[in-house]
Amino acid sequence: MYAPPGVKTNHNEFPIAETMRAWVLGDPGELSMSEKPVPVPKKAEVLVRIDAVAICQTDLEIIYHGPPALIQGGQPFNKNFTPGHEYMGRVVALGPGVDECKIGQRVAVEIHAGCGQCKRCREGMYTSCHNYGMNYGDHDKGHRANGFTTDGGFCEYQVNNVNTLIPIPEEMSDEEGTLVVTAGTGMYALTELGGLMAGESVCVTGPGPIGLLTVAVAKALGAQPVILTGTRDNRLQIGKELGADAVINIRKEPDVVEAVKKLNGGKGVDYAVECSAATSAVNDAVHMVNRGGRVCLAAYAGDKVPVDVAHIVRNNIYLCGIRGEGKSATHRAEAFMAQKRFDATKIHTHTFPLDDLPTAIRYAKDRVEDAIKVVVKAKMDAAHKEAVE
After folding, report:
1. Could you tell me which residues come within 8 angstroms of residue 150 by beta carbon, excluding any fewer than 6 positions away?
2. Which tens digit of pLDDT belongs to each residue from 73-85?
């Protein structure tokens, strides 16, 4: 029975074995089920029983290519590393001195727990921690980014810093709980753009999970109009259901910049959030905003991106990038979700058991059955099992 010194547990309600099932990354693209010791929370940490974890595009980048994961100072392959970061579950054990939450509390989790001592962490920019990846041996500065620099969520239990926990209500489904972080990324984008004011205009490029929930958050904040661009009509329709006032299929529109301006009374929008990772999207975004407008990059292309720098300078356009869901934006996003300000589950399309993670990854990677957000669950109820089978 799991009983580390100084760790509080409640085995009557939440029994914990000493070992757990965990997927481990071998060579690029190769995952195998393994058995690992259940991790032990230290000071300011808790043990989370993982009930569900969503697959993110970044998980696919890590599994097949490596970056932005950084394990023991290098690539994540063949290092007994467990990826996955968009998970939720219940707190089942408390590290020494932890009283910020209780055993049994349902939580979603942020990925990043910064070192707490560098310049960026002290500013609240813990997703830009200067000690990113410095968490091993003599180099341990205290930084943790589960699924990136430390073991992640494609397993049954994981340790999290108390600062990364977002309490979620009992009535929120496991699947919706995994989407809190995705909505938090959209909230962070709008925060870094300066804080959206009601009545300001927004264009979101790319109807992937982050783009769709950025639409939802922008509308919940009072943006008008909210415009969504993309290439798939069914995803654009989901965008409408989440709050987009207008959508543009760029395959059917020869000049997307002019189309956006037409929808906004003939002028550029106040803000653009780029979520598509298309090579042309950044340049389109800087031309979509009005003079003094702001562009946030929440995705990146694999190739070099051409940008009209002269247009940016001449028109005093602000351009920023974001990493993850910093500045506690996830807490604000969860508040909207708990209040039913939007239905994040509209982007959830498939659920698989943890044992079938390779199939879930294939669905997410190849967009099988037009998968958007794919979730895996450690324990599935009978209805889910029947649906999968």
Report:
1. 135, 144
2. 999 999 999 999 9
